[in-house]
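Data availability (excerpt). The following record was deposited with the supplementary files.
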Amino acid sequence: MKDNKPAIVVILSIVTFFTMIDVYTPSMPEIARHFDESNQEVQKTISYSIFGTVISCVIAGLYADRWGRKNFLVFGMSFATLGSIIAIISPSNDWLLLGRFMQGLGGGFMPILGFAVIQELYSGPKVLKIFAILGVAFSITPSLAPILGAFLSQHMGWRAVFVFILLTVLASLLSLIAYLPVSLNTSHISKMSLLTSYKHIVTSKYFVKYAFLSPIYVSMSFFELTMMPFYIQSHLGYSALAYSFFLAFTTVTFACSSYFSSWLYEKMGIDPIIKLGLGITILSAIGLGIVFLVIPESATAVYLALSLKGIGWGLTFSGSVNNFLNPFQHERTRASTARAVLIQIFLLIGSTSAQFASTTSIYGLVVFVSLSSILAWILYSIHGKNMVNSTM
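Predicted structure:
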């Protein structure tokens, strides 16, 4: 397919979903003060959003192929729009939790179905390039969104952040209606066949080897996003804007490595670069451990170590997604849904674990990143031989 508009629309829609999370994290301490709530109560706004996305995973997996992916994407953004309005006018933290839940439920269809849409509309090396662009977009979002969110929060209040979210959701909704093809695949499949299909996907070697990588990296990032705003701002005394710049530094490394990953895949093959990325991630965990022992309250040192994680994730991202989805050409939506469910499970693990971690020490972050990087290496190494054409 030569028309790039659908790919652009899908990328923007997925970025909009992640913007809902990244843009408001610097505002969490202010929200806690405004509603006179504890840090842990405000951190639940992340967990509620993830709960909503988990539900959208289940719904999309069961009905997206029957009702059409475009219909689901448009419905999702419409629901996220309503959630954004509730968040803006919320008189208490409970209402904000409801708005965040609705944002997660509606916006969650974007990453679930977006990858399947790209696989359906495009083929060959172009898919890898689009996934690489998605990787860059994923990194730009957590780089720029917190800076913008911190600026809006400091100068206009935390509600202005949700006004911005509402505007981006509306822009994404209108773009989906205007440019996404109506003819996206719909099919009628029995529930028994659906269950058989999912069993085939989750028991395949590709699922264990490739599908777990991005979810594990996401869990590390959400542990960081949930805990570090309070550590950097409340404990070390930095402003929300300063925190956003620290976060931007680490995500720039993800952007650079993700951008060059497609070129490296062509030169060296996908699996060797994935191994390199996992090795660099383990080095990030080691670096965090050294920082904790030597200079634990140096924000610069902490984020220098975390930047290695960003490099590792960038090198593994598009290759692992392609190698997982590629074997399931006739089950794209269901394979993408299975991967999305994994992501949401690991999102919950990361954000929920962070709520039990101290916000005055990076010890919890060190432990979580170390265990996660080891788990990623073990799961990837269970099947040692390359199982797909890794040069595409």
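Summary of structural features: The CA atoms of residues 49 and 100 lie 5 Å apart.
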